[in-house]
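Section 5.1 Outputs to date
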Amino acid sequence: MRKRSAQKPVILIIDDDDQIRSLLRELLKTEYECVDVSSAEEALEVLKTINFDLVISDIQMGGISGLDLVPRVLKDTPDTVVVMISGQQTVDSAIEAMRVGAFDYITKPLDLRHVQAAVRRAQAQHQLLSEKRQYENHLEELVAERTAEIEHLAFYDRLTDLPNRILFADRCAQALASAQRSHRPVGVLRVSLDRFKTVADTLGHAAGDIVLSEAAARLQTCVSEADTVARFDGEEFALLLTQIAEAGDLADVSLAVSEALKEPFRLGDQVVYVTTSIGISVSPFNGEDSNTVLRNAGAALYRAKQQGGNDYQFYAADMNAQAVERLALENSLRSAVENNEFITYYQPVVNLVSSEVVGLEALVRWQHPELGLLPPARFIGLAEDTGQIMDIGECVMRTACAQTRLWQDDGLGRLRIAVNISARHFQQKNFLDRLRQVLGDTRLDPTCLELELTETSIMENGESAVRLLNEIRNLGVKIAIDDFGTGYSSLGYLKRLPIDTLKLDQSFVNGATTDPDDAALVMAIVTLAHNLRLKVVAEGIETAEQLAFLRLLRCDEGQGYLFSKPVTHDVFASSLRVAKRKLHVIAGAKPSVVSSFPSAVNE
């Protein structure tokens, strides 16, 4: 269809009277671009090539009448406005014209003023129709766009634009059905970014989103175009591999994934490193339907995480039982704090010169209503993953501070209580306020409280951590680095950290009397700490030989099964009273507290 003039509206004039056409053309040509024909048949031909704003048509013409023409015009160009001309001056003729779709009706002989007024009304109506049509078309486009977006969001991840769990499961089902016919294996990898929660909690969710988006892009380079990379929840991705010949190919892909994600993620001036845990299942060996294959890959992923992460695991039959147990523990963990199911145990800290008990470490246990007493290894990792660690940590800190104050009031001495603080707990914005509240509520002297943090939890966000540590120490609370030597192990940062104590990891203590390298490390750490005016507490002392070696190095304090296993508050109190009586009786000697406390070594 020919383009119409952009300057003037276009009118088609149809009348078999030359004088009428000429009159109308002369009348309207100033404001309108006019085309005139002498019959409806000619008009239909012209309408095939030109789109008109208005049509002015006589009713009575030889051949097709104007009344028959109107519906055909409006069918092809519904925004065109038709004005009828007729020598019939009856109301019935006008009604009949309106019924077939005419907008207005002009009678002959023509009154030019009436013609001009009718044409202006018709042009205004055309403008309204055009705007209405544009608006409706725009709405239709918007609806189509939004519908497409909703459909896309139903099957694709908003952040990475990867297929989501729903689409992945569908593609997996299709791949398995095809593989059964061709007798080829299909592999599913579930990939989780280790320590991602720490990155997001420390640097913020925007930084976490950058890591996830970059990880998604790197994962796509590890597979072929026929394979699928999807994002599940949080930091978990999934890979569907259909072009494999044997299970060994999946190990190769797992190694490629680990290598791709091992490269640093750059977040402005910050550099972040992550490792991956990968669970692998292979159909038909580990299931023939998508639900089973995905579930088994998830069980293998859980095993990889349990092994400490940075690892891949193929599915084995016993893994589902562990996954089910983890889910049950997770469900019961959510109500454990409210139900007061956590119990605080205490392990004495001994002065290695005087053998006196100078403090103790608070260690949590879970009195599970069905499984009995659970050690931290069974639930702390799960508590970290679910965020319950904050509630548990505060519960232990409050209980330990209150109990220590009771012991002090009971005449057991100015004991120091050490409480482990997780990275997530320490990084809470209101941690300092909550600490003040606990000290105020329990009336414990802040100098009797020592917070134990790992190197990793401090160095995740070094500058802000140093500021917070300074504020904590300004309260009088002591700071200890726990498990020293297993984290960043950068001796240089010790100078600028506001800390009081290094706790020497038990892995070094255990090998100190049998491995020259461990002995050299322990000696170097103790010497360095003392030069920096830091106290050293050795963890995991189990033998008299280890104790003698640490005393030779002038290590300040120690704890471990040689002295006492972790005990309940009542056992600790009674054992401490016995120890104090012994010290009182054997004045001037160096009595051992080993016989006063329940020692796992003695047992």
